[in-house]
Amino acid sequence: MSPTSARVIAVDTYDVRFPTSRDLDGSDAMNPDPDYSAAYVVLRTDADDGLEGHGFTFTIGRGNDVQVAAIESLRHHVIGRSVEELCADPGTLNRDLIGDSQLRWLGPEKGVMHMAIGAVVNALWDLAAKRARKPLWRFLADAEPRWLVAQVDFRYIADAITPEEALELLRSGRHGAAERESLLREHGYPGYTTSPGWLGYSDEKLTRLARQAVADGFTQIKLKVGADLADDVRRCRTARQAIGPGIRMAIDANQRWNIGEAVQWTRALAEFDPYWVEEPTSPDDVLGHAAIREAVAPVKVATGEHVQNRIVFKQLLQAGAIDVLQIDAARVGGVNENLAILLLAAKFGIPVCPHAGGVGLCELVQHLSMFDYVALTGTTENRVIEYVDHLHDHFVDPVVLRDGHYLAPTAPGFSAAMRAESLAEYTYPGGAFWAADLAQGKGAAA
């Protein structure tokens, strides 16, 4: 098949679930029993190169039924389209998926449908980067600024950033890009780890993992909080004793609190010098975050992993509601919308510290931060990517960390492809693990 006439011939979906709740991995005050899951999509083409586009969105169990169905509802927008045209302008697919009026009614641009759009759009970017023979971070960093601006939907955010302002930011960001790319390849991008801090872990396990994090070169860890104040005081004291005064410690309430509770709870933990308090209340409450930020300073306020689109991010920035912006590679409408959010953050001068962990979120979001460093903001100051040490072995191109830093991926694509063996074992309900599990009457994810 000629490369110029190749078409997308299949959009395959997989409901992939891992039984992480059984060891309390991922447990927090709002989500005590998460089974980390991925609604996974593969774009297949009839091109002779055999390349595929891989993408997914992250869920925590039974919601995957709904999420996979949402992805499947977008199939008709993709099947039969020119591979060359899609890869030359991924924004066309992004606009078509967001513009489906009957499906848009379920949002608009939020929730399950928007996450499904993100999964498909990310799969296209994976394919485009593979065809360009570049890892996605470099594919974006090498792209012409005007082309990148054309990938962004400025509807609803033009009052905060115009296409002309975005173009200037990207043009300015190219100065010194080659030197920063060299530094990135040599040293990597700074990370922090949440691995010690899951709410269900014992104090012994917390202490052991916190000390190990420092030994591994991390300069920041994070603890889940919000279920019981006395318990949180004890755990924060335990963690601070384990890591010493020179390591940053963030706390994460996972949306558990009302505004007053957030202020009181954060002040009660202030003696342990938390660097930021994350998701202190509803991710939709812009004014609530602003009130909390004013009341708990100098503790910083961070949020973003559940912020549903660029419009809410815009308002958080306009309202001065956050100190740290946390993009999520699989929550909003894919790379295109995350480009918009990165540009907004750059315009307002707010550092981006992405949410990661989950299933494959570390693999994806590293590319966005590395692009931001090389070709947009040009800095890693007060910027770190979250890291959680599980489920990476299920990916063909897993993240690699050295001395607390993400090493720059070198393989072409978005690092999104899962191993065939993992799909065969953990696809629900017919994969080998779940079939055996259900046969034994466990059915934890049913």
TrEMBL record:
Transmembrane segments: none
EC numbers: 4.2.1.68
InterPro entries: Enolase-like_C_sf, Enolase-like_N, Enolase_C-like, L-fuconate_dehydratase, Mandelate_racemase_C, Mandelate_racemase_N_dom, RHMD-like
Protein's name in the database: L-fuconate dehydratase
Keyword Kinase found: no
Coiled coil: none
Catalytic activity entry: L-fuconate = 2-dehydro-3-deoxy-L-fuconate + H2O
Residues annotated as domain Mandelate racemase/muconate lactonizing enzyme C-terminal: 203-299
Organism the protein comes from: Streptomyces longisporoflavus
